[in-house]
């Protein structure tokens, strides 16, 4: 059904009658249709607002937004290392790729994409720490998955289109809600209420069938009320074979705002269906090594179909071939925020959140045994093929508060939050070829995970005089986790653990003059093990502890800036992959007593003229484990019958070894040239040094350094009939580099009885796309 609307739209203190048409063809779009209609109605109403109210509304927005931000954000004088990125800076590259990819130019950041082109499953590492150690909040609400502690941006496609700004704090940073920042924290703030009504649509197309379409609408402030909405669709075939993504999302916000009070209700969500490319590509396939591929085929007993695929696919090889080998998940977030400025000195905000998530990934598995699904069955050894779905059905509830009191030179914050998670894990067979009868949709495992997390913090900022600024922050956190049932490997789960943590922080900043400052801070973070650590590790691990020292220098003038930040992150009982396996062969993490990350982060920017600007950053680091034991399993077999004769662990001790996925050099730079008004041309570079796939510092288990260069171009025109038309072009990897940005490895012995053959090592990589482009056009009304 095609619906057409006529609305009044404000522009330059005048109003114009405009026509908008949208086509909704199925029942699934009923919600989006309603959202758009309400927003359009709000736009029409807002056209009656008085022009002289706009400036007053602007003051309200800025003042109360600052109240909402202040509890968890670092400020210019806060003695921690951080970077801010604004909506305007994100706009030129926001053409469909996931949020981590858009943050790639920030200091100490490395990003990756399973599908190779930045759409679908993507990841971010900061100072070598993975996403499970990066605390993420959205409007102060924790976003990390409570059990895995990871973040899954694929569940929030095009969320950047509803983001006002992002702050990345490196290291422990300031206290925030959710799991402890064990390498960085990412604080995301959604859009400020627009002062005037607007309508915006962005459409982009690119390589590998990538396309993005969205429309955003806002009413502007009218009699203190406002409404905004967005709907988006992103699709991509992926660089890796069959690694397609079909993503949709929406964002709706409505609220009330006056000089002292803000009430906003936000609903946003996403639905994703991605074809799996989690397996990675064998090293020999990535390198085009025919002999190596054949050796891999022989030792892994690959089927003829698998062998043909490896020999003919090249670096875009995908192990999965079943038509519906997909991840299918939907997540919806409901947020309510209340902010009030009681007087010039005292303000407060309270926020509530409910997140609903449900979905599965589907797999085809051949030559499975009945006993793999129904232990104890009389027909346990019977074989057949199956199609199975592994489900997660979860609920997340959160309440966070923050109170701010200002008294002369003292600024106090009292905040904290409580959140609760419950998640059902279960697997079902939707088809099988077993010789015995199995009812359709049979659940072959179920387990329940429950987690509660309470934290409270007190922060103090004290301006001693015009030169000195002091900061102190203490946080208490109480975590309770329990899980029971059967794991997906049919292993009994019975976990009940409680942790309580005390995390103090303190620092000072000394302003040398109006342009130069130095700072120093020390902070403690403690962190509980994740679900896999507790359910798969036969020896329950200890919680981890981090002592983070940061020292820095800042220079900032209207024309140029420079910063240097030295850090030393001292870990106790850090959980790392050691090569050990659980009783079904999955890798597990173990505590290592002592490890550290030490480095220096450099940033500089120079404005040569109004037309030319350069920004660059570099991190040089050393990331070490003092000592740990690496485990490889030795299987010896009878060369006549191939029956296993012995199976034992071979333990090798390592000292002063490199922490996996922690490059010693990370550098980036952006050169922007504006030859004419409204035209910006950018040259973007990124260098990432060698990374080891495990903690043995073995070059045979590593990823080579890579240097990638991109081009960007943006051009804006402002005709009389529309507010703005913007064209954006992004050409990635312009020199066609063949590189990988992620991977994994495992080693094992499989040798005839009495043999002393070396261990076999299998490396798998995630190749990234060669030269590719994205082209978009944005219309702003």
Automatic annotation (TrEMBL):
<keyword id="KW-0406">Ion transport</keyword>
<keyword id="KW-0675">Receptor</keyword>
<dbReference type="InterPro" id="IPR000531">
    <property type="entry name" value="Beta-barrel_TonB"/>
</dbReference>
<keyword id="KW-0998">Cell outer membrane</keyword>
<feature type="domain" description="TonB-dependent receptor-like beta-barrel">
    <location>
        <begin position="302"/>
        <end position="734"/>
    </location>
</feature>
<keyword id="KW-0812">Transmembrane</keyword>
<keyword id="KW-0798">TonB box</keyword>
<dbReference type="InterPro" id="IPR012910">
    <property type="entry name" value="Plug_dom"/>
</dbReference>
<comment type="similarity">
    <text>Belongs to the TonB-dependent receptor family.</text>
</comment>
<keyword id="KW-0813">Transport</keyword>
<keyword id="KW-0472">Membrane</keyword>
<feature type="domain" description="TonB-dependent receptor plug">
    <location>
        <begin position="75"/>
        <end position="184"/>
    </location>
</feature>
<feature type="signal peptide">
    <location>
        <begin position="1"/>
        <end position="49"/>
    </location>
</feature>
<dbReference type="Pfam" id="PF07715">
    <property type="entry name" value="Plug"/>
</dbReference>
<dbReference type="Pfam" id="PF00593">
    <property type="entry name" value="TonB_dep_Rec_b-barrel"/>
</dbReference>
<keyword id="KW-0408">Iron</keyword>
<dbReference type="GO" id="GO:0009279">
    <property type="term" value="C:cell outer membrane"/>
</dbReference>
<keyword id="KW-1134">Transmembrane beta strand</keyword>
<dbReference type="InterPro" id="IPR037066">
    <property type="entry name" value="Plug_dom_sf"/>
</dbReference>
<protein>
    <submittedName>
        <fullName>Iron complex outermembrane receptor protein</fullName>
    </submittedName>
</protein>
<dbReference type="GO" id="GO:0015344">
    <property type="term" value="F:siderophore uptake transmembrane transporter activity"/>
</dbReference>
<keyword id="KW-0410">Iron transport</keyword>
<dbReference type="InterPro" id="IPR036942">
    <property type="entry name" value="Beta-barrel_TonB_sf"/>
</dbReference>
<dbReference type="InterPro" id="IPR039426">
    <property type="entry name" value="TonB-dep_rcpt-like"/>
</dbReference>
<keyword id="KW-0732">Signal</keyword>
């Amino acid at each position: 059904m095609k619906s057409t609307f006529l609305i009044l739209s404000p522009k330059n203190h005048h109003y114009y009658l405009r026509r908008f048409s949208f086509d909704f063809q199925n029942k699934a779009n009923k919600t989006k249709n309603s959202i758009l209609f309400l927003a359009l109605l709000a736009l029409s109403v807002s056209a009656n607002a008085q022009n002289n109210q706009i400036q007053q509304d602007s003051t309200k927005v800025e003042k109360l937004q600052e109240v909402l931000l202040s509890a968890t954000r670092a400020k210019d004088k806060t003695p921690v290392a951080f970077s801010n990125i604004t909506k305007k800076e994100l706009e030129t590259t926001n053409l469909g790729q996931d949020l981590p990819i858009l943050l790639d130019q920030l200091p100490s950041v490395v990003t990756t994409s399973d599908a190779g082109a930045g759409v679908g499953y993507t990841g971010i590492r900061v100072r070598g720490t993975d996403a499970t150690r990066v605390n993420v909040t959205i409007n102060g609400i924790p976003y990390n998955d409570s059990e895995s502690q990871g973040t899954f941006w694929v569940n929030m496609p095009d969320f950047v289109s509803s983001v006002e700004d992002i702050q990345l704090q490196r290291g422990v940073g300031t206290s925030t809600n959710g799991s402890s920042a064990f390498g960085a924290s990412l604080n995301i703030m959604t859009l400020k209420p627009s002062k005037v009504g607007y309508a915006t649509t962005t459409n982009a197309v690119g390589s590998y069938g990538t396309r993005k379409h969205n429309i955003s609408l806002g009413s502007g402030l009218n009699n203190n009320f406002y409404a905004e909405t967005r709907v988006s669709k992103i699709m991509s075939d992926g660089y890796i074979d069959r690694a397609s993504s079909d993503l949709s999302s929406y964002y709706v916000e409505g609220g009330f705002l006056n000089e002292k009070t803000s009430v906003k209700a936000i609903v946003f969500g996403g639905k994703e269906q991605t074809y799996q490319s989690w397996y990675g590509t064998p090293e020999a396939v990535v390198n085009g090594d025919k002999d190596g591929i054949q050796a891999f085929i022989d030792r892994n007993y690959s089927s003829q179909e698998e062998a043909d695929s490896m020999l003919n696919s090249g670096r875009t090889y995908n192990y999965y071939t079943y038509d519906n080998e997909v991840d299918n998940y939907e997540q919806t977030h409901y947020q309510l925020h209340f902010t009030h400025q009681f007087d010039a000195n005292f303000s407060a905000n309270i926020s509530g959140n409910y997140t609903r998530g449900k979905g599965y990934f589907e797999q085809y598995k051949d030559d499975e045994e009945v006993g793999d699904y129904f232990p104890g069955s009389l027909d346990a050894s019977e074989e057949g093929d199956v199609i199975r779905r592994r489900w997660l059905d979860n609920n997340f509830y959160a309440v966070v508060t923050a109170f701010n009191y200002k008294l002369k030179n003292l600024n106090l914050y009292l905040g904290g939050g409580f959140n609760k998670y419950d998640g059902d894990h279960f697997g079902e067979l939707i088809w099988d070829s077993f010789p015995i009868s199995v009812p359709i949709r049979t659940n072959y495992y179920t387990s329940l995970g429950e987690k509660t997390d309470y934290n409270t913090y007190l922060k103090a900022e004290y301006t001693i005089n015009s030169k000195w600024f002091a900061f102190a922050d203490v946080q208490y956190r109480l975590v309770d986790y329990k899980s029971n049932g059967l794991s997906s490997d049919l292993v009994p789960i019975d976990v009940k653990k409680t942790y309580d943590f005390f995390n103090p922080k303190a620092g000072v900043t000394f302003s040398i003059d109006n342009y130069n400052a130095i700072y120093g801070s020390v902070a403690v973070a403690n962190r509980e093990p994740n679900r896999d650590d507790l359910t798969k590790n036969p020896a329950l691990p200890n919680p981890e502890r981090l002592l983070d020292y940061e020292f820095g220098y800042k220079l900032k003038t209207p024309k140029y800036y420079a910063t240097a930040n030295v850090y030393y992150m001292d870990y106790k009982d850090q959980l790392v992959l050691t090569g050990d396996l659980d009783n079904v062969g999955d890798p597990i993490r173990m505590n290592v007593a002592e490890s550290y990350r030490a480095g220096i982060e450099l940033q500089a920017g120079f404005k040569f003229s109004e037309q030319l600007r350069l920004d660059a950053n570099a991190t040089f680091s050393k990331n070490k484990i003092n000592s740990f034991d690496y485990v490889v399993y030795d299987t010896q077999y009878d060369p006549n019958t191939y029956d296993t004769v012995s199976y034992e662990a071979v333990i090798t001790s390592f000292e002063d070894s490199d922490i996996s996925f922690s490059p010693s050099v990370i550098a980036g730079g952006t050169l922007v040239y504006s030859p004419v008004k409204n035209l910006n041309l950018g040259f973007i570079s990124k260098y990432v040094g060698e990374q080891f796939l495990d903690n043995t510092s073995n070059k045979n288990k590593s990823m080579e350094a890579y240097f990638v260069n991109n081009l960007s171009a943006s051009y804006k025109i402002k005709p009389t009939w529309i507010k703005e038309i913007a064209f954006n072009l992004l050409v990635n990897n312009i020199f066609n580099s063949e590189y990988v940005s992620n991977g994994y490895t495992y080693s094992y012995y499989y040798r005839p009885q009495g043999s002393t053959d070396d261990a076999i090592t299998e490396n798998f990589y995630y190749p990234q796309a060669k030269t590719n482009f994205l082209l978009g056009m944005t219309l702003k009304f």
